[in-house]
From TrEMBL:
The keyword Cell membrane applies. The chain crosses the membrane at residues 37-61, 68-87, 107-129, 149-167, 210-234, 246-262, 282-301. GO terms for cellular component: plasma membrane. This is Olfactory receptor. It comes from Moschus moschiferus (Siberian musk deer). Belongs to the G-protein coupled receptor 1 family. Residues 51-299 form the G-protein coupled receptors family 1 profile domain. Putative odorant or sperm cell receptor. It is found in: Cell membrane. PANTHER family: OLFACTORY RECEPTOR. Coiled coil: none annotated.
Length: 326
C-alpha cells in the first residue's frame, strides 16, 4: 500500500480536534428557494466551466493568440475554472441534501480556495504590468515580456499563491474544533471556521489579516502604479485613435480588476460578528461564482482578437464540414 505524504496531510495528522467532519449549511434556511437556487447555481456552474474551457481551448489552438497578454488570460481562465470546481459542487450538494465534509476535505478545500484566490491576485497584477509595457514601452515589448519573463511571472504568481494558502491552512489546522461542527456557509472559509474553533483565535485572526493585507497592498500598489503610468502616457496622446486603442487594450482588465477586488474587499471588510457571517455568505457568491463566470465573457465580447479567432474557427470548421460532405 502506497502512502502519499504532503505538507497538508502532515499538518492535518498533527491536529487534535475531536470534530472529524463538518456540515456545510449553505442556503438551507431558504427552504422555499432550494430548487430555484439549485437550478441557478447549476446554470452558473455550466456556463463557468464551458466558458473558461472554451477560452483556454481557443487560446491554445490559435497561434496568433500566443502572445504575453493571452498567456496571462489563459492562466486566468485556468484559475477561474479550478476555483469553480473547488467551490460549486459542494454548494450544489448543500441544496439537495445534508452536505457533510470531512475535516481533511475541509482543510483541502480551504487550501485550494486560498491558493486560487491569491494566485488570481498576482496574475491580475502581472497583467497590469504587461499592459504598462505594451502601452508605455511598445518598442521594448517583445524583449521585456519575453516567454522566459512571462513564465517567471506566472511561476511567481503560483508560488506566492501556494505560500499564502499554506499559511492560512497551516494556521487553521493548528486550531482545535471541539463542540459545534456546523459551518454557516457553503464552503470552508476562514472566518466561519474561526468562529467554530474552541481555541483562542486572536493570533490566527491577526495572521490572516496580515497575509490578506500584504497580498492586497502589494498587488494594488503595482496595479495602481502601472495604470498611473499608462494614464500619464495616454494624456500626451492627442489623437482620439490613441485613446481608443488604450481603452481597448486595458478595458477588459480594468473591468476584471474592479469585479474581483471590489467584491472580495467588500465581503472581507465586514466585521466577523455572527450577524455578518450570514451576510458574507451571500456576498461571497459574487466573487466565488459570478466573477469566474463573467471573466471569459468579458475577454470574449470585448476583445477583437478573440472574436476574430472564433470567427476563423467557425469558418474553418464550416469549410472542413463542406469538404467532407462533398
Amino acid at each position: 500500500l502506497l502512502l502519499y505524504v504532503t505538507p497538508l496531510s502532515i499538518m492535518v495528522v498533527g491536529n487534535d480536534s475531536s470534530v472529524t467532519e463538518f456540515i456545510l449549511v449553505g442556503f438551507a434556511d431558504l427552504t422555499q428557494l432550494q430548487l430555484p437556487l439549485f437550478l441557478l447555481f447549476l446554470m452558473n456552474y455550466m456556463v463557468t466551466v464551458v466558458g473558461n474551457l472554451s477560452l483556454i481551448n481557443l487560446i491554445y489552438l490559435n497561434a496568433h493568440l500566443h502572445t504575453p497578454m493571452y498567456f496571462f488570460i489563459f492562466n486566468l481562465s485556468f484559475i477561474d475554472l479550478c476555483h469553480s470546481l473547488v467551490i460549486t459542487p459542494k454548494l450544489l450538494m448543500s441544496l439537495v441534501s445534508e452536505n457533510t465534509i470531512s475535516f481533511e476535505g475541509c482543510m483541502a478545500q480551504l487550501f485550494f480556495f486560498c491558493f486560487f484566490v491569491h494566485s488570481e491576485c498576482y496574475v491580475l497584477t502581472a497583467m497590469a504590468y504587461d499592459r504598462y509595457v505594451a502601452i508605455c514601452k511598445p518598442l521594448w515589448y517583445t524583449v521585456t515580456m519575453s516567454p522566459q519573463v512571462c513564465s517567471l511571472l506566472m511561476f511567481g504568481s503560483y508560488a506566492m499563491g501556494f505560500a499564502g494558502a499554506m499559511v492560512h491552512t497551516g494556521d487553521m489546522v493548528r486550531l482545535s474544533f471541539c463542540d459545534s461542527s456546523i459551518i454557516n456557509h457553503y464552503m470552508c472559509d476562514i472566518f466561519p471556521l474561526l468562529q467554530l474553533s474552541c481555541s483562542r483565535t486572536d493570533a490566527s485572526e491577526l495572521m490572516n489579516s496580515i497575509v490578506v493585507s500584504t497580498v492586497v497592498m502589494i498587488s494594488s500598489f503595482i496595479i495602481f502604479v502601472s495604470y498611473a503610468l499608462i494614464l500619464s502616457n495616454i494624456l500626451h496622446v492627442s489623437s482620439a485613435q490613441g485613446w481608443s486603442k488604450a481603452f481597448r487594450t486595458c478595458g477588459s482588465h480594468i473591468i476584471t480588476i474592479a469585479l474581483f477586488y471590489g467584491s472580495g474587499l467588500f465581503t472581507h471588510l465586514k466585521t466577523s460578528s455572527d450577524g455578518s457571517i450570514g451576510q458574507k455568505k451571500f456576498l461571497s457568491v459574487f466573487y466565488t461564482n459570478i466573477v469566474p463566470m463573467l471573466n471569459p465573457l468579458i475577454y470574449s465580447l470585448r476583445n477583437k482578437d478573440v472574436r476574430l479567432a472564433k470567427t476563423l474557427r467557425r469558418k474553418l470548421f464550416g469549410y472542413k464540414f463542406f469538404c467532407c460532405k462533398a
